[in-house]
Backbone:
């Protein structure tokens, strides 16, 4: 393949380069492993913080931005394993105070 963007002369050479790149990305340093492990260990806390930020943003947002924030709030509640009925009730209400009350309840349990 003369004139290819990366200068590979054959498809097999291109695939060999791709395999090496993917293989080297899969190896993580101990530091990276610790960061990933800590993220998943603290995921609930991170999601609760995100939900708190969304509550504050919802009080200030209007229009399409508000709709996007409610969608993100619903996704965050699902990740926190809140029952679907409760998620739908809070999101459909459009009331940030209701979301805040739920967040307070969740923080008390933690």
Residues:
């Amino acid at each position: 393949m003369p004139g290819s963007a990366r200068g590979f002369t054959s498809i097999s050479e291109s695939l060999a380069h791709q395999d090496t790149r993917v293989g080297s990305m899969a190896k993580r340093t101990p530091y990276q492993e610790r960061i990933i492990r800590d993220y998943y260990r603290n995921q609930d806390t991170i999601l609760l913080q995100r939900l708190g930020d969304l509550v504050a943003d919802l009080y200030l947002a209007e229009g399409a931005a508000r709709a996007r924030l409610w969608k993100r709030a619903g996704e965050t509640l699902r990740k926190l394993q809140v029952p679907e009925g409760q998620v739908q009730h809070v999101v459909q209400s459009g009331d940030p105070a209701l979301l805040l009350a739920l967040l307070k309840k969740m923080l008390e349990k933690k």
